[in-house]
Each structure stands twice: as C-alpha cells, then as structure tokens.
Amino acid sequence: MPVAVGDYLRAYFTREAEERLRDSIPNKIREIDDLLRESLFDLSTGIRRVRQCADGLTSQLESTIGESKKDGVSPLQLPIVTNEVLEQAYTATRPFILQLIEDSQILRMWVQLNIPRIEDGNNFGVSVQEEVLMETTKAEMEASSMLDFFGDYLMYRAKVASKICKWPTLSDYRRALADTDEGAYIRLRMNVRDIRNHYSRLYDIYHKNALKLRMPRNEMENQINIMY
C-alpha cells in the first residue's frame, strides 16, 4: 500500500473510530437501555402479546379455511399473516444490528491499520491490539448472525403455517406456531441485550487500552504492562 494512501486511510479510520468511541457508542448504549425498558421488550408482557397474536392468527386462519372450502378455494392460496408483535420487535432491533456491524468494521480497520511491522523486542502492545481485534471481530460476526436468524425464523414459520392450512384440525401445529413466535421473540430480546453488551464491552476495552492501540511500542522494554 503506498504511503500516502496508507496515511489517508489511517487518518480516516482514526477519525471515524474516535468519533464513535467518544459520542456514537455511548449514545447507542443509552438508546438500547431505553428500548429495553419499553413495553415492547418487557418479557412477561411481550410473551403474552406474542401468544395472543399467534392464537388470534390461527383462529382467523381456521375460520377463513372453513369459508374457503365452501367457496372452493384452495387453503394453500390463502394469505398467511405475520405476527405483528414480532414485526414491531424486529423493526426496532434491526437498525441496531446494522449499526453494530458498521461500527465494529470501523473499529476493526482502525486497529488493523495501527498494527506495526513485526519486529523483535517488546511486542506486548501488539498483543493487546490482537486481543482487542478478536473482541471486535466477535461482535461483528455475532451481529451478522442476528440478521440470519430472523430470516430462518420466517422460513420455519411459513412451513408451520402451511401445515396448519393443510391440517387445520391438528392442534399441535397451532401450538407449534405460537411456540415458534414466542421463541423468536425471546431470541430478539436477547439480541437487543447482546447488542448493548457488545457495545459496552467494546467501549470499555478500547478506552482501557487506548494508548496501546495508538502506540503499541511507545513504552520502555522493561516496563511491566497489564492489559486490563
């Protein structure tokens, strides 16, 4: 990488990372805390609303199937309505997932561009950078898996709903739909808490090791170093 390009990228990612650590990440932690206090993510209230919505959907579907038989309409052509509570929860959660991925990428690139050349001598600062880099990569990967989860949930839910259309008299399928929605809601709530915890962890580890991240070899060889 040419020196001019390397310096430009290093300055850009340094500016972006420091702005996030100074302003954006603390604000995100407060926003997520506020979100978790809302009734949408109150565990007992949320589970009750999710199951009520799922039970209401299956009852409505059964009624529609009964009418469709009289009209000669195939049940497989009937619309399957999503769980409104799950939609609200995912709509509230998704922006935080995407932002965590972006913030983690910025922080990761900042650390990577500040890793010095491999040399003999005191490399403790470099090992600190590598440890912080692992923590940042972990946050990015787990946030990406959160996006995959909701798509998998929708696919599985669609299969259960299609079986309700085929065999509306089997109560186990109706129960399975409600359990699927409840499990997805609990997982979404856990995701929100995990996002908050990732941000808190990143904020803490970056601030505790700020000097080592910027200047990994800027200390005396014999100085005792403690990461945390």
From TrEMBL:
Transmembrane segments: none annotated. GO terms for molecular function: endopeptidase activator activity. It comes from the Eukaryota. InterPro entries: PA28_C (IPR003186), PA28_C_sf (IPR036997), Proteasome_activ_PA28 (IPR009077), Proteasome_activ_sf (IPR036252). One of its GO terms (biological process) is regulation of proteasomal protein catabolic process. The keyword Transit peptide does not apply. GO terms for cellular component: cytoplasm; nucleoplasm; proteasome activator complex. Keywords: Proteasome. Residues 81-221 form the Proteasome activator PA28 C-terminal domain. Gene3D superfamilies: Proteasome activator pa28, C-terminal domain. Coiled coil: none annotated. Implicated in immunoproteasome assembly and required for efficient antigen processing. The PA28 activator complex enhances the generation of class I binding peptides by altering the cleavage pattern of the proteasome. Belongs to the PA28 family. This is Proteasome activator complex subunit 3. It comes from Fasciola hepatica (Liver fluke). The lineage of its organism: Eukaryota, Metazoa, Spiralia, Lophotrochozoa, Platyhelminthes.
